[in-house]
Amino acid sequence: MITYPRWLDRGTGKEPVLRLLGIGNAGVNIADRIAVRASLPLETVALNSDQQSLNASVASKRIALGPMTTHGLGAGGDPEMGLEAARESMSELRQSVEGADVIFLCAGLGGGTGSAVTPQVAELARANGSLVIAVVTTPFQFEGRRRSQQAQEALQGISRHADAIVHFENDRMAEITAPRAEAEETFAACDNILFQAVASLTRLISCPGPMAVAVPDLLGILHSGGGGFLFGSGEADGGNRAHEALEQALRSPLLDRGRLLHEASKVLVHLSGPRSLTFAEVAAIMQEISKNTAHTSLLHLGVSVARDESAPLIVTIIGHCGAAARVEPATPALKVETVRASSPALFVEDAVQFTPPTPSPAEPKTSAPKVKQEDLPLEPIARGRFEKVEPTIVEGEDLDVPTFLRRKLKK
Amino acid sequence: MAREKIHVGLEIGTTKVCAVVAECHRDGEMRILGVGESPSRGVRKGEIVDFKNATQCVHDALADAEDRSDHEIKGVWLAISGSHIKSFNNRSAVTLPEESTITAKEIESVEFKAKEAGIPKEDVIIHSVIQRYYVDGQEGVIDPHGMMGTKLEADFHIIHGVTNRIQNAIRCVREFDIDVEDIVVNSVASAQVVLDEQQKQAGAVLIDIGGGVTDYIVYKDGAVCHSGVIAIGGDHITNDLCIGLRIPIARAEKLKIEEGSAITENISANDKITLKNDTGFSGRDIDRLMLNMIIQARLEELFGILRKRIQEVVPEHILGAGILLTGGCSLLRGIREAAESVFPGTPVYLAHAQAVSGPMSAFENPQLSTCIGAAKYAQAVHAEMPDESLLNRLKGFFSGRM
Q: Do the domain assignments include residue A167?
């Protein structure tokens, strides 16, 4: 019987193992970025059928897919070929997901390898009892109908197995850069957004802090219940960091410059900063965000503190909008049903070997008690006649509050 | 030509809307014909929050100005403010073919390139002010026109703001079929009339503290090197008093104007101000020390923020002409002393519009600096396009004969 650590147990003191699998060319790119730039507690694995891209990769583990099928030349945009390669390297794939509590799957859908292999790995990882979060992109419109169709099929395949899908449309991402920007810059910016998404999700799950985000809350938002995924992230340091970071986050194209936040039914805000992060900054950011969201939306707040004193303040906004049925995050029993019902022919014999995970429905509640974050003890701040206007925030201080109150001149 | 060119400057401020009608002579002189004012409603922190009310106020002020100046207003130069207005310095360069002289085309393209700098999508560039040119790396070129060179570089100070917010102010005026000829940022307008050429050369900071916002502009070597807006103004002091002393807003405003000061020295603890009772307000004794302390704290904080921002671009000691305070809030007692305590060693002056003639009450009032400045800016812009106006005049001449 495979144990099924569906939710990370924060009580045991054991660091959860987070692993990122970059699948296909685009996925390997992200894995490289993570491996090079971020000081994140994340293992990176590069999976590709293209030997060349693997050779250049700096991921901690590199796995060649289907060396016999593709001869290390890549799947050439053909999902059939990708599937063939996955079939050949099944044992390696299984190995790659073993022993991880959380698995991020990064891939650019629409091609050969990413589209075909990602759903398979998602299924393997899921069966292995990991929490599976897929971070995927769908192709630009100008890449043609064929590719978007392949991407859509792959997306459906993944959504059957993954706990959550973070889905970026390349078309929308391209809006980040100015219309006249160089092509390379635009691609780099797209990659960067994916990187930010993975990095902030990792921080969200793994970083300790005075106010951790409960995993059910996160999944509740990420859950693939239709509708759109909103993501914005910004980082800044220096005196005015709170304001700047927030502004950057809101400016994200995936938030449509803050406008989409109004439509979000659930919003999760995560702040990660150095020890010097003040409560006033947290309050100022939250105030600004709540101004940007609808009154009925559910706000979750998480705060984590980095050990590093010089760490920048990072604001991450994750939301879900559209016709999202209130999918309960903790319905694994149901999910298992779908997994079994949809077991593709490829994995018939493997599926028999797996004992379907049977988590107790009560588990999430006990292991990760839901913190009522909307009951923040925010002090009412006296802003007088400026109550309803845009606040003047300089260096993280709300200057509409009388100076003498902030400096505590009055007895 | 019976009358000289007439320009109208309009400012939609947080406390008042005012319009200045000024007659501009070709030699650069300016005479104020009339000033129209109306207390402002629907404006907070220099930006319109209640369109209908603000429109009404603009109408009142323009009507008042027409009455007083006996001039029918057709177009205005609108002064713009608000915390969305930001600025930065940018350098651009163009390369010329060998052995060629710099023409207006190159100068235009170097400015165009400077404007291409990345501003947020929703923003628009309001001003691009030339700071200095470099020809083949040679510094201090004032006008490169006609010079030989292979590389023309230029430093520009670029001021930009959010398009929609600016549009709102413009729409407010257009409601009455009055044309907005152009817009000008508050600080740039004020500098037109408050600072003279020597002060700009020597290095000066102009701080215009209004009701809702504080605009500032820094000059060095005759060129703008920094400008900006902080959304803090006299209203904040009133609000602080209202919260701190627990008195109604209207009372706080009156108290600030009549008794308020930013000096806390030499006040005995027993010094009280008696507020008479009124409907809805029972009389109270106000501690003068408390009153001044609240004002002082706010002003010192404001100057502190300004000092930090100014120091990022210019060291204080090279500001030869010092700091000039203008705007309605500069009438507050002790504001000069408060500024001096924050900027030690730098002279601080109270200033108002210079080099204009007309009713003294108009140009000596620091509240009107921006508004007069907007008219002066119009004059300066027109003076810079002599070719066009000459052509127009000729056209008029010929058509008149035919």
A: yes
